[in-house]
Amino acid sequence: ATQYTCMLLRYLLEPKADNEKVVMKLKKLESSVSTGRKWFRLGNVVHALQATQQSIRATDPVPRICLTLASLNRVIYFICDTVLFVRSTGLVSGVNKEKWRRWAARYYYYSLLLSLVRDLYEVSLQMKQVAHDRAKREKSPSQDPLRYSVADEETEWLQSLLLLLFHSLKSHPPLFLDTVKNFCDILNPLDQLGIYKSNPGIIGLGGLVSSVAGIITVVYPQMKLKTQ
Where are the bilayer-spanning segments (predicted)? Predict the structure, then answer.
């Protein structure tokens, strides 16, 4: 959260000439925090392997396949990231920095893409459940039929779909947090791979939102999306 806050503030302050000192301090702090994160992430390969073992036990085949492949790609990503970190410390030489960085971005992208596929699958299940519950209420004689009527007009199908999506995510906060987190995280590899070019401001904002979502799942473990 600190790293991406610095990135976002630096992007906002850079256009102003009288903020050069502040921008330099933010840049140094961002670099220092980024280096510190590399140290803390050295054990993430083990964590990703453990996540792979857990996802294999999922009963639903779609989350099982998506999460297992996502975890395996995350393992490769952390290996590439570790190689880049060791290279930056000067312990090894002859490592092509750009090639390894592109490999890391690619496998990170694959991991997040698979995680988003899982999220969309879970969202579709929630939308079906909400639609089913709504249909039950419509059939109930005690309910006002106008209150829960589904729009039949073709021009209103998008509004009905968005309303259904809103109620689905509202009824399942862990799914909402996981979807937002993965969507915000994927902005970085999209930019690095040249798939969708962005800027440090958007990446910083996305990283900050993702970090806050991650903090919420740590403080409140019940908000973490569970593997069924």
Answer: 201-220
